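dumping this here so i dont lose it
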């Protein structure tokens, strides 16, 4: 319980004590949005990094060389833990937002930081509003802002399983003309979800696979893009689990 208390206390302090920083970033954004975005990414990444240390989570990152440096990308990963965001945000190169559920927009202070790093809020119950969010995501990647999405649509609650990947999740990459980076996350639930409410010391592996360029795939694969990328991730997931655990 000590690690949980430390992590939660730190998060609260970060949000409260970070209010002046928010104000400064707002002012900077009025004159130089690019500088504000980079500063916000650095601060949020640093904050999440501190939470990882307090939680005692060792992180092994593989495949960084597979992330293109000449364009934005759409990171697509399996989702088992709240720690998936804590662990991935600091390691993404460049500006990267998340496609988050609409309910996150109601969280005071946290939602402001999410907006500063270009997170989008998806209404999963309203198709029309969901389409607007996807179109907003298309504009973001066209402007050089990468996005991360978890196509299962919700946090999977069963270890070593994968929920179906929603095909609509890939529209941002398809319409935005950017590659998909399959992201394999192994053992993240061991930090928290597997033994609620305790946070335990563990090791998590994250691997970025080679980019998938949708326009280079055959028609049949493009029609079942969710299943194709899900298989890439699940196959590698079990290989990594065997190798490290």
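and the seq i came up w/
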């Amino acid at each position: 319980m000590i690690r949980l208390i430390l992590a939660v206390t730190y998060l609260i302090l970060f949000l409260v004590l970070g209010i002046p920083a928010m104000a400064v970033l707002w002012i900077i954004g009025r004159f130089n949005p690019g500088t504000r975005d980079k500063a916000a990414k650095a601060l949020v990444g640093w904050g999440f990094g501190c939470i990882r240390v307090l939680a005692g989570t060792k992180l092994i990152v593989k495949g960084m060389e597979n992330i293109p440096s000449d364009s934005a990308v759409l990171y697509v990963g399996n989702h088992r833990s709240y720690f998936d965001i804590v662990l991935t945000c600091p390691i993404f190169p460049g500006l990267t937002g998340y496609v988050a559920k609409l309910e996150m927009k109601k969280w005071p202070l946290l939602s402001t930081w999410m907006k500063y790093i270009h997170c989008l809020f998806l209404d999963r119950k309203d198709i029309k509003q969901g389409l607007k969010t996807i179109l907003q995501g298309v504009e973001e990647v066209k402007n050089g802002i990468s996005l991360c999405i978890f196509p299962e649509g919700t946090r999977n609650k069963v270890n070593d399983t994968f929920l179906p990947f929603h095909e609509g999740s890939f529209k941002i990459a398809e319409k935005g003309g950017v590659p998909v980076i399959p992201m394999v996350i192994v053992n993240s639930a061991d930090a928290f979800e597997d033994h609620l409410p305790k946070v335990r010391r563990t090791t998590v592996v994250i691997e970025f696979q080679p980019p998938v360029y949708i326009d280079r795939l055959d028609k049949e694969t493009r029609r079942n893009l969710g299943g194709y990328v899900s298989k890439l991730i699940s196959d590698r997931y079990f290989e990594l689990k065997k190798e490290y655990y």
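The mean pLDDT is 95.
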